[in-house]
Amino acid sequence: MSAGLNSVLINSEDIRSLFRRDASGNPVFDNPLTDLPINILEKLRLSESSLRLPHDIRPEEYERVLLTSDIHADLEKFMLILYNNGIIDRYYTTHADNSASPAYKDYITQIDDIINIISDFRVRQHNFLLVIIGDLVDGRRDGDIRDPWGNIEILLHIFIYNLRIKARANGAEVRFTIGNHDWHTIIQTDMFAGSTQEKFYNDYVHTTAKKYFGDNTDRRFVSRNNAVRVSPAFTNRRNCLIFFYLLSPYLIITIGRELACVHGGLHNEYGTMIDDIIQMQNLIDNDINFFLNIETTGETNEYLSSEFGFLWSRFYSHGSKQSVCDNSINGQDRFHLIAVGHCPTDVCNHSGYMQELSNKDRPRCQGNGCVLLGCEDRTGPRLAFVDITMSTSFRGGVSDNGRKNEVLHLIHSSDPRHNGLRYYNTIKRVRSYISTPPEFDIVWEQLQALPPLPISDPNPQTPNSDPQSPNHEVLNMGNINPYSQNTNYPRWLNWEYNHMGGGKKSKKRLHRKKRLRKTRKVLRRK
């Protein structure tokens, strides 16, 4: 690693400055953490120019893309998944069934070892992009994450920061988008009684984290003169974590036309939100203070906090296949694949399209953290659900023992058999367990060539060049829309069907053209 990158890594001594020691040298967490130490803040500031980059990435930069989401403070599980996917060389675990592993660490008594792993791990692979699609924080829903001292969230963010620095040294990249939990409990400061921020803090921030940042009471908000004041712990926690989000300020991450990563979705019941989120992200790319000043833009604030917005929308999982795929995903040609988190594949599938997908894969998905792919068309799957309920606190007490966890891999292959319609022409699901080697399956590979173009007429008529004419024909077959859903027709008729406007009359006209072409072939043979 270059001296420049090494100088901005948060090392073990920096991490130990987050808490004090007693006379015996044991860590003590009796004083709340109110701000990041100066030495850590300075390293974050120095790394800004190398980590804070535009949201759009060129596909040619990375041969492989890994997608996951919704860590929800489960640093232990996140590190295990990265280890099993070959990204890092070590991890820690508190699971008794893995105590024989040389990487086994007892979290309660060996925090120094965990700190050493967070600072000294190595990145094993090159030329990959890892995208975490939102919700890094909030380790409580059905129960609390295992975090005896309350510092797991700050350790998670430091680990991801170091992972980004070390990946960069290997020609790789790690980024994360913002989820609804990140937005409401870290970025937002607009607090009032009954607000979403109040609910999220009370219901989703785990108990020891509140104490670590200074909340030792059951009452989170204090009313004075009819004004509501936020608990100091909320402010302290935000002050410590917000700087990591300023280095990855992404509502959406895109890879050209190949991929869009957004926590909730790019559509809702009322239509598309693609232009809105791209416009908003462009503002963020050009303004480092956007998040700090966002409370002054009420319309933007409301849109991000809305249940129909792109951080919250569950339209893809709860809508019907027709509304999700035919009317929304496959109706847009901006991105080949849209990947979302937010809705756990083993919890959120009680209705709608996600239920249909999980029912098809029930043996693989039931009781496991599975990735779901849907909205297939001629070019491959167009939608991916990657929230595998990674955090034990969001799983209703379901144990990790024997549970599979999947990560989605998009891979570029230079195999000449690929038709080149997508840059990432192979999709894999990599499954891992607590203590067994990972396994994978190829769920889609673009090896089949598209139907050949029709044989040209040896005596072609001069085509009408007026695009508005009903007799207009297209000679450049590259203009054909590859996303057409009219798969009953050959590829060379799809564009003509769409151009005619669809409907029964258009179908009749196409059938007449097909019969006419068959007749011409028969006559030529004679």
Brief overview, please?
It contains 20 helices and 18 strands. The protein is α/β, with parallel strands linked by helices and 526 residues long.
Layout of strands and helices, then pairs:
Blueprint lengths: L2 H5 L4 H5 L3 E2 L5 E2 L9 H9 L1 H4 L4 E2 L6 E5 L6 H10 L26 H10 L7 E5 L19 H18 L3 E4 L3 H8 L8 H9 L2 H6 L8 E4 L2 E4 L1 H15 L5 E4 L3 E4 L4 E2 L2 E2 L1 H12 L4 H4 L4 H8 L9 H4 L2 H9 L7 E4 L11 H9 L1 H4 L6 E3 L8 E3 L19 E7 L14 E7 L6 E7 L45 H9 L3 H23 L1
Parallel strand pairs: 3-9, 4-5, 5-6, 10-13, 13-15
Antiparallel strand pairs: 1-2, 4-16, 7-8, 9-10, 11-12, 14-15, 16-17, 17-18
Describe this structure in words.
The protein is an alpha/beta fold. It folds into two domains: 3-445, 4-Layer Sandwich (Purple Acid Phosphatase, chain A, domain 2), CATH 3.60.21.10; 451-526, no CATH class. It is built from 20 helices and 18 strands. It has a six-stranded mixed beta sheet, with helices on one face. Strands 6-5-4-16-17-18 form a six-stranded mixed beta sheet. Strand 1 (20-21) and strand 2 form a beta hairpin. It is globular, with a radius of gyration of 26 Å. The model is unreliable at 97-104, 222-226 and 452-505 (pLDDT under 50).
